[in-house]
Amino acid sequence: MKPVRLRAGSATDVGLVRSNNQDQYLVAEPLYAVADGMGGAAAGEVASAIAVRTLGEELARRGGSLTPDELLEAAQTANRAVWEESIAHSEMRGMGTTLVAATLVESGTLAVINVGDSRLYSMRDGAFRQVTVDHNLVAEMVAEGRISKEEGQVHPRRNIMTRALGVEPEVPVDLFVEEAIPGDRFLLCSDGLPRELSDDRISAILRRLSDPSAAAKELVHEAKRRGGNDNITVIVINVLEDHVEPPSLESAGSLVAGAAAPPVSGEPESESEPGDEETKLLDVVGTGSAKPGEHRRERPAKEPRASLVTLRVAAFVAAFVLIVAAGAAGVWYYARSSYFVGVRGNTLAVYQGRPGGVLWIEPTLNHRSSVTTAQVLEASLASLHAGVEEPTIAAADAYIANLASLFQRSRAAAQPPPTTPTTTTPSSTATSTATSTNGSSATISAPTTS
Ligand code: MN
């Protein structure tokens, strides 16, 4: 699988009807999130702000990247943070927020979590689809086939959410795992966007504007133009190929240019552009027969020509060697500049290199930790066996320590009964795997109309 990186553009607007913008968003590569707050007075803004801020903090605490499990945990932490704030301040009682977040995890996959009716869409080869499933009364009725999609679009209760972050101490969070290959695009948005624009309109704008910032701005602009009944927030993400050594190649290129321009010989004639020189020389040769006299005497022209050719060959060889060397250095740097936590025997160990190695460069063991595979959550084992990349040895050690303490805490929590049962309730869409943590059913138990 090709290594990928993400490039994002974002835009938000209060819209034309609301007096304040309760949407918040986070663009903190490789983590992106949109939260749409709800609650009286300023409470909605507070809820979405806390949710987004907590996600950012969790990302930083984990050293700048999150596994799918950590993303789920971060959402749960954000839920608790909003809930605790709401019980601490009576005027904020009942506030909550949607939260949709996506992060690039190892091996070109995007982990997506969702609570509420903000959305993540994907677009591949022009095919546009909604990845997340809205936690919305009417959307659920449509999904269950109780009403048609068309009936749903005009249903009077279409804005009633069945799940939100921060209204209870725990919340079931959906997780989707999406493949992310170069050329793919993802769109995170609050409901203010699909409320005004159909999927067709949204995808047409994405197709028209490849730049993520331009697309995000245009989507918000268009949603505003078509009503702007709600706050509108959009993040557009482009999945790009992550070249192994783009900076090295570029610098090699400039080195080549530099080497070719001032030739090593220092001959005065070669001061001019090599191309010009060649044309002149050809002219001399060409007109040579016409003016047999003096020009003939300038025969030594043949000499510089030959030396110019060797010079060019030399420059070309030098450039080639530089490119190869820079490329090899780039690969070497890429292959060795990172660390990862893996499993050695039955203990967790820190390796230098990339999981699985890069070309001919195999990872090497840096050190073993004192933590065994029996001292971490079973859910972490798969990613550990695949190798969890960390930028530094310290980060790798911190990651191991986090895994161990997470395990301790979960064991401690397992003793008294009323804590997080980690049942997973699959509720999947066609191409995504979706699971809910915390098997408890809908948070805001929606009145069921049938
Ligand atoms: Mn909204």
Overall description:
39% of the residues lie in helices and 22% in strands. The chain is an alpha+beta fold and 450 residues long. The strands form 3 sheets. Strands 2, 3, 4, 5, 6, 9, 16 and 17 form an 8-stranded antiparallel β-sheet that branches. The chain has a 5-stranded antiparallel β-sheet with strand order 1-11-10-7-8. The chain starts with a strand and ends in a 14-residue tail after the last strand. The site of manganese (II) ion has 6 residues, from loops.
Shape: globular
The SS-based structural class is: alpha+beta
Taking Cα atoms only, what radius of gyration do you get, to the nearest Å?
30 Å
- Spell out the helices and strands N to C: EEEHHEEEEEHHEEHHEHHHHEEEHEHEE
Unreliable stretches (pLDDT < 50, length at least 5) are: 246-304, 417-450
Bound molecules: manganese (II) ion
In what range is the share of β-strand residues? 15-25%
How much is the average pLDDT? Answer: 78
The biggest sheet amounts to: 8 strands, antiparallel
Q: Helical segment tally? A: 12
Fraction in helix: 25-40%
